[in-house]
């Protein structure tokens, strides 16, 4: 029989995520995958998994999970309290979970998304080479529901990773952005971006981080739909920018003023509604 | 041809026509290190291997797409769509002639987008090149075959949509669990036949 865990309670949203399915955009398939891939990779390393193994992406924590077999787990992302059978344990550390033990994850003080890796990785069937749930196109497993049972893969040897400080999501983000491909749709795109000030909207999701604030003045009209990449900052006619995250549509018809560096995108993906955002245009 | 920067590792190649899009896509299709290659109406987005990409683009002949071995796909259609009469009326022909024209042409998948497996097919006879509906439907059933502007397409799954619907197909257009998930890929040659 396969090793498994039971998700007693999902919290606000629990999704199976790995590093996604890039390379299929020409079929209209979004890349998907963990919004904060560094945190998922770290959690995997801590439990001896390959970085590409599937774990859980937990929006605002809140999950409760029972081990149906002995396993090692690690919780990463923003600092969060973790209990095993009611006793406080460490996040950002490999922790052993005996068969029948229950893990409970609290709500992070800052940030949005915690990652849970389990030794062996979550072994749901792959779709287009990935186990990730894509909320835009419905590819991959459905969002988890209370009492779902998740099968696990075969665990590898314990790896022993460094102790890592948890991510602390700041109140104000300074986001490097590279102008283009459609900065010529804006009067002095660089100045508009540099002088503007936005906050993260509560309508943000895995498709994109919606920002509200300074209106970016752009030409009227639409572009014939063109390819979009993760991190693209699309500007609809209302001038309020949207930063595309992992479940973004593969094409779009609004001009992209610039692209956020991949290394900084995870901080936007961890930014709670209300977080202040300023852009720092590069070249 | 205009190369537009798209972050640190991607370029948006802007050209003047679908033929030029096809030429750029074909030239870059088998280049090592290219992670994404996304043709669209007037652009090709390419991610990865930028030095090699720039080298290829410096010498690409945009006037015709290089002969690539395109796959041939046949889609059986029942022509009983809710807009068949509207399309016939707009073209000033009979519904039977709409069916004959649509099923006699050979199409090419210019690009995919909108939803997984949704291919925009070019090659539509001129009288069938018609505008979208004034008011889009909130739900177009999966398998619907429609026309809009210079394109025809089949809907892989139920979505909102404003295309004029002339028929429907039972064929599976997208199955994420299949070895080849998308029936249609850019460059494929497509024919519709009366089911």
TrEMBL record, chain A:
<keyword id="KW-0067">ATP-binding</keyword>
<keyword id="KW-0378">Hydrolase</keyword>
<feature type="domain" description="Carboxyltransferase">
    <location>
        <begin position="26"/>
        <end position="283"/>
    </location>
</feature>
<dbReference type="Pfam" id="PF02626">
    <property type="entry name" value="CT_A_B"/>
</dbReference>
<dbReference type="InterPro" id="IPR052708">
    <property type="entry name" value="PxpC"/>
</dbReference>
<protein>
    <submittedName>
        <fullName>Biotin-dependent carboxylase-like uncharacterized protein</fullName>
    </submittedName>
</protein>
<dbReference type="InterPro" id="IPR003778">
    <property type="entry name" value="CT_A_B"/>
</dbReference>
<dbReference type="InterPro" id="IPR029000">
    <property type="entry name" value="Cyclophilin-like_dom_sf"/>
</dbReference>
<keyword id="KW-0547">Nucleotide-binding</keyword>
Automatic annotation (TrEMBL), chain B:
<dbReference type="Pfam" id="PF02682">
    <property type="entry name" value="CT_C_D"/>
</dbReference>
<dbReference type="InterPro" id="IPR010016">
    <property type="entry name" value="PxpB"/>
</dbReference>
<keyword id="KW-0547">Nucleotide-binding</keyword>
<keyword id="KW-0067">ATP-binding</keyword>
<dbReference type="InterPro" id="IPR003833">
    <property type="entry name" value="CT_C_D"/>
</dbReference>
<dbReference type="InterPro" id="IPR029000">
    <property type="entry name" value="Cyclophilin-like_dom_sf"/>
</dbReference>
<keyword id="KW-0378">Hydrolase</keyword>
<protein>
    <submittedName>
        <fullName>KipI family sensor histidine kinase inhibitor</fullName>
    </submittedName>
</protein>
<keyword id="KW-0649">Protein kinase inhibitor</keyword>
<dbReference type="GO" id="GO:0004860">
    <property type="term" value="F:protein kinase inhibitor activity"/>
</dbReference>
<feature type="domain" description="Carboxyltransferase">
    <location>
        <begin position="1"/>
        <end position="184"/>
    </location>
</feature>
């Amino acid at each position: 029989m396969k090793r498994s865990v039971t998700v007693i309670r999902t919290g606000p949203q629990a999704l199976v995520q790995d590093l996604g399915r890039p390379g299929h955009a020409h079929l209209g398939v979004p890349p998907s995958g963990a919004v904060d891939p560094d945190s998922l990779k770290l959690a995997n390393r801590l439990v001896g998994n390959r970085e590409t193994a599937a774990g859980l992406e937990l929006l605002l924590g809140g999950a409760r999970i029972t081990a149906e077999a002995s396993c090692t787990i690690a919780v990463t992302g923003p600092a969060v309290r973790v209990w095993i059978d009611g006793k406080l344990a460490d996040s950002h550390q490999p922790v052993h979970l005996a068969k029948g033990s229950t893990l409970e994850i609290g709500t992070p003080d800052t940030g949005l998304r915690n990652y849970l890796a389990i030794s062996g990785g979550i072994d749901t069937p792959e779709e287009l080479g990935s186990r990730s749930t894509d909320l835009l196109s419905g590819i991959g497993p459905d969002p988890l529901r209370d009492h779902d049972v998740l099968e696990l893969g075969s665990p590898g040897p314990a790896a022993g990773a460094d102790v890592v400080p948890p991510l602390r999501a700041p109140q104000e983000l300074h986001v490097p952005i590279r102008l283009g491909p459609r900065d010529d749709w804006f009067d002095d795109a660089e100045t508009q971006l540099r002088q503007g000030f936005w906050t993260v909207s509560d309508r943000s999701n895995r498709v994109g981080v919606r920002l509200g604030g300074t209106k970016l003045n752009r030409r009227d009209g639409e572009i014939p739909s063109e390819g979009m990449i993760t991190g693209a900052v699309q500007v609809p006619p209302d001038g309020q920018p949207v930063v595309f995250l992992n479940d973004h549509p593969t094409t779009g018809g609004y001009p992209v003023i610039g692209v956020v560096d991949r290394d900084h995108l995870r901080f936007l993906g961890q930014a709670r509604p209300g977080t202040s955002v300023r852009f720092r245009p590069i070249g | 041809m205009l190369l537009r920067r798209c972050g640190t590792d991607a370029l948006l190649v802007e050209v003047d026509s679908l033929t030029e899009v096809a030429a750029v896509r074909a030239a870059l299709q088998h280049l090592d290190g290219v992670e994404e290659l996304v043709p669209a109406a007037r652009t090709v987005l390419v991610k990865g291997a930028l030095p090699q990409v720039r080298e290829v683009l410096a010498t690409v002949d945009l006037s015709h797409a290089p002969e690539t071995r395109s796959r041939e796909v046949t889609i059986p259609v029942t022509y009983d769509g809710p807009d068949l009469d509207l399309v016939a009326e707009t073209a000033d022909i009979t519904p039977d002639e709409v069916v004959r024209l649509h099923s006699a042409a050979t199409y090419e998948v210019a690009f995919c987008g909108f939803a997984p497996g949704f291919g925009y097919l070019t090659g539509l006879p001129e009288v069938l090149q018609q505008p979208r509906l004034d008011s889009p439907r909130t739900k177009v059933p999966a398998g619907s075959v429609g026309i809009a502007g210079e394109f025809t397409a089949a809907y892989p799954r139920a979505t909102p949509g404003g295309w004029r619907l002339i028929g429907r197909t039972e064929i599976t257009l997208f199955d994420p669990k299949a070895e080849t998930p998308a029936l249609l890929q850019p460059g494929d040659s497509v024919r519709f036949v009366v089911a």
